[in-house]
Amino acid sequence: MLCVDFGSTFTKAVLLDPTDGRLLAHASVPSTVSTDILDGYRSIRETLATQGFPVADEVLACSSAGGGLRLAVVGYERSVTAEAGHRVGLSAGAKVVRVVAGPMTTAQVATLRAARPDVILLVGGTDGGNTNVLLHNGSRLAKARLGAAIVVAGNVDVRAELASFLESAGRHFVLTDNVLPQIGVINPMGARAAIREVFLRHVIGGKGLSKGPEFAAMVRAATPDAMLRGVETLAAATDGDVLVFDVGGATTDVYSVISPEGEDAVLRKDVVPQLWHARTVEGDLGMRWNAGGVADAAKAEHLLSGSDLSRLRTWAARMEANPAYLPKGGRELELDLTLARVAAVTAVRRHARPAHPGDPARPLTRLAHIVGSGGVLRYSPEASQDSVLRAITSDFAGGWKVPAEARTGVDSAYLLFAAGLLTDAEGHGPEVAARVARQVLSSG
Predict the structure, then answer these.
(1) Are 207 and 256 a contacting pair, CB within 8 Å?
(2) Is residue 186 a contact partner of residue 272, using CB atoms and an 8 Å limit?
(3) What digits encode the pLDDT tens for the residues 363-393?
(4) What confidence tens digit (pLDDT) does each residue in 283-293 have?
């Protein structure tokens, strides 16, 4: 069985034994988005064939190529339903490109169109609560010149009316459960599933990444969605809280799966409570396209100063000017590792710290595992990997409670996305996915 991740920069694949999830081989090639996204995939297939492996019986894929899944959220109040929609959108593997709150105006519709979302998550009102804003926004979206599909996840009392608006306008839409059915309760699963359905049915084929239908047929999820499913599977397989940080060329993503205990488990202190299975995306922290943001974060977070900061700024500017450049020699490798260390520490701080003054921090003190991911870690020696991981586990000045006993490792074979794909694949069951996920710890 072949699991493939079509990224905007690289296409990665792992070949697995479908009976026990054992890793047989892995490969990576530059993504061929400028020609046909399947050109790189075919190159991987040829490489595996020359290594003596037979043609895979099954292919499961995820994709973030072509900009990934772009999501806009339209809600009632920015601090309530719009915030709930934003959190759910991130957990569904989307890049949230716009959040609009309140009754939409003509100007807001224009800003929504300018954001070019693939999917719009329409939320608003608790079940049995306010209906006026949700109906107004649904009507505006039905009439607007927007090609995005719509996921309706607001007050269930007006779903029939909203469906009538959207159907009469010929819009693509999916109805699902309210993301905030009552104050203090967040319900992400229905919207996550609906966003995945819309992504597969309406987005993948529309990006023009491949000339034939094969690409759309093999993709099962957006890559960040598959990654979060993989982290969930890893947490279940190891019976412990897990945090994963993924340092990429454009963003640094952080995933955490937590089983709350004590006060965290029984009290609902927030209007919009935390998601215990969560993902955050730091769009200003990237190893290449947003390297300058990493240098800015190094200063803002007091991680570097003086000549060290100046050297990192110079290196970051060079990387932004030539994202395809690979470091050569010990000095350049150390600068690249410093970029990764600052990006990882900053992203984890933002994930862990309270979103607003007075909010509780994310409870990460009981983490059992902290796992690093991303090419800069996968292709670095163990000592370099450890330096990045230690920067997180010793971040006592970062404004969050550092876990005392977390084991650390790197997803060296890039298996988490594959575990996520297998979790939801028909005919395999969670057992094989769990076996794949456990290999992440042994491979690190």
Answers:
(1) no
(2) yes
(3) 999 999 999 999 999 999 999 999 999 999 9
(4) 899 999 899 99
- For 64, the token pair is 């973030």
Confidence of residue 438 (pLDDT cuts 50, 70, 90): very high
What backbone phi and psi angles, to 5 degrees, belong to 74? Answer: -120, 115
pLDDT of residue 309: 98
Q: How confident is the model at residue 266 (pLDDT cuts 50, 70, 90)?
A: very low
Provide the CB-side half-sphere exposure for 124 (13 A, CA).
28
- Confidence bin at 301 (pLDDT 50/70/90): very high
In degrees and rounded to multiples of 5, residue 397 shows phi and psi of -100, 15
The confidence band for 270, taking pLDDT boundaries of 50, 70 and 90, is low
Query: What mean pLDDT, rounded, does the chain reach?
Result: 92
Q: Are strands 219-222 and 59-63 parallel, antiparallel or unpaired?
A: parallel
Residues 6+ apart with CB under 8 A from 46: none
Cβ contact 185:268 at 8 Å: yes
The HSE-up count of residue 331 (CA atoms within 13 Å, CB side) is: 4
d(CA 138, CA 74): 9
